[in-house]
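Lab notebook, design round three. We kept the backbone fixed and only want residue identities now. Task for the bench partner: fill in a sequence for the structure below.
Input C-alpha cells:
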C-alpha cells in the first residue's frame, strides 16, 4: 500500500509538471519528450536520458517545466545525450525579441549575459527573448525574461544581465522539444 501511495504521488507530480509546461508553451506541431538528468560533469554539462532511440539531433532544445530554454543537445549516444546548460560557461544561444532585435545569450555560470547582434528598435519595451526559426530552432520558445532586469541601450547596442534562478537537480522535469 505504501509503494502504491508513493507511485501515485510521483504520477501526480508528473501530471502537475506536464500541466505547467502545457500552460506555458504552444503544443501545435511539437512533440515533447520528458527526460531526466543522469549525471553532471565538471564543465556543468549534463547527461540526460534520450538519444538516438528517440531520434535526437544536435542543438535540439531542452525546456524546463515553465517552458523556458535551459539547454540544448551537444552530443548524442544510443539512449542518452549530453547537453550544454545555462549554467555551463560555454553556453551560447541566439535569440530574438518581439521587436525583431537579435541577441546572443551566453553564460558565466551564475548569470545569462544578453548582447544585441542586430538592433531594429531601441524604444519599445523588451520583455522576453525567444528562440526562432531563423536560427534553426523549431519555433518561438522563451529563453529568458528581461522584465525585472536593468537594460542598457547605449551606442545602438542592447545589453543586460539576468541572474540564473533555475537549479538543476536529478528530480528536475525537463523536456526535449521536437517538431512533428
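Proposed sequence:
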Amino acid at each position: 500500500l505504501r509503494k502504491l501511495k508513493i507511485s501515485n504521488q510521483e504520477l501526480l507530480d508528473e501530471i502537475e509538471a506536464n500541466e505547467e509546461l502545457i500552460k506555458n508553451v504552444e503544443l501545435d506541431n511539437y512533440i515533447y519528450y520528458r527526460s531526466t538528468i543522469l549525471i553532471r560533469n565538471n564543465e556543468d554539462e549534463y547527461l540526460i536520458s534520450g538519444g538516438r532511440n528517440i531520434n535526437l539531433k544536435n542543438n535540439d532544445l531542452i525546456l524546463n517545466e515553465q517552458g523556458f530554454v535551459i539547454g540544448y543537445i551537444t552530443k548524442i549516444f544510443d539512449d542518452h545525450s549530453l547537453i550544454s546548460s545555462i549554467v555551463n560557461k560555454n553556453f551560447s544561444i541566439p535569440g530574438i525579441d518581439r521587436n525583431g532585435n537579435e541577441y546572443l545569450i551566453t553564460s558565466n555560470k551564475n548569470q545569462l549575459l544578453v548582447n544585441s547582434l542586430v538592433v531594429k528598435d531601441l524604444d519599445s519595451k523588451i520583455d522576453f527573448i525567444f528562440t526562432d526559426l531563423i536560427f534553426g530552432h523549431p519555433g518561438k520558445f522563451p529563453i529568458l525574461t528581461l522584465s525585472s532586469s536593468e537594460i542598457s541601450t547605449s551606442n545602438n547596442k542592447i545589453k543586460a544581465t539576468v541572474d540564473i534562478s533555475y537549479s538543476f537537480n536529478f528530480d528536475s522535469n525537463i523536456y526535449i522539444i521536437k517538431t512533428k
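Keep this in mind before ordering anything: The first strand starts at residue 30 and ends at 35.
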